[in-house]
Amino acid sequence: MRPLPKYLFRRRKVLYEEVAPAVSGARLFAVCFALPLAVLASCTAPQLNFVQTTIDLPAYRSFLVPRPLLPFRATGSLRFTYAGEAQAGEFILFGSPLRAYRMQLLAPVTGALALELRFDRERMLLLDFARDSYFLGGNTRENRERWIDLDITPAEFLLMVSGRISEADFAAAGGRWISGKQAQMTVGSVTYTFWLDGHGLPARWNKMEHGQLLYRVEYREYLSVPTASGPPLRLPRKLRVYTGEGAPTMILGVREFLPGARSLNPVAFVPPAGREWRFTPLPSR
Asked: Looking at the domain assignment, is residue 282 inside a domain?
């Protein structure tokens, strides 16, 4: 097993060490060069337009915040599992004020749009541009585990990428402080435990059910976002998600995070026009 060649990430050298997956030569060929010619020719990422809205950034300097950190736009590099196969590339992510999300994954080298994931609390639409296939269904635990090998809800996803949780959501889950740097909350049968760093932001947190670890998130580094006054806002830059003791299930490196950026492209749960899409059922376990 060997990592992707560094020349593939030469323009993103800073994030390479966090997201370059270990794959065999055969898989490297499949991921980087064996895309259909139609995809390479026509499937560059469409422009997602956005406007910058005003947001009270100083209110988001701590772990507990008055409201979710929405909307936002983020870009960076991502490694995760999709339909049982390792995927890696650059990503573009939007979070809407209505807690709907749209993430595009671009293929290495070509920059072609390879995958797009759209999801909210109820629905998920997965678009595979390399195969002209899609999946549309409920945002359920089974669907999440089958497609991305990780049971992460939209609320958990926002918590993961922002390192924040709203005071209302924390209180509704019976949130409590175990110590000055450790907090816990419970939603149904699931318990979340947070360990904070010296800045009062998560260093790591766990999701457990009936005493069994479902996954843990570890923050390796934070980036600084300037504010109009006072110190900058610290947001996650490098994080890893583990479902066990082995290699991480997901590695995410954020290059840019724009709080208040609102997409002008609505998160629609229908495949885009102009292609002959084929419905794909759930992948087998």
From this structure: no
Name the phi and psi angles at 37, rounded to 5.
Answer: -60, -35
**Is residue 210 classed as helix, strand or coil in its secondary structure?**
coil
Supply the range of the domain harboring residue 97. 2-268
Residue 278 lies in a domain: no
Place of tokens 């669907």: 143
Q: What SS3 class is residue 26?
A: helix
pLDDT tens-digit map of 63-88:
999 999 999 999 999 999 999 999 99
- What is the CATH classification number for the domain harbouring 30? 2.50.20.10
Does 283 fall in a domain? no
pLDDT tens-place string over residues 173-220: 999 999 889 999 999 999 999 999 999 999 999 999 999 999 999 999
Judged by DSSP in three states, 79 sits in strand
- Whole-angstrom distance, CA of residue 113 vs CA of residue 103: 11
Domain count, the chain: 1
How buried is residue 203: exposed, middle or buried, by Cβ count under 10 Å (0-12/13-18/19+)? Answer: middle
Q: Is the pLDDT of residue 271 over 80?
A: yes
The answer to whether residue 157 scores a pLDDT higher than 90 is yes
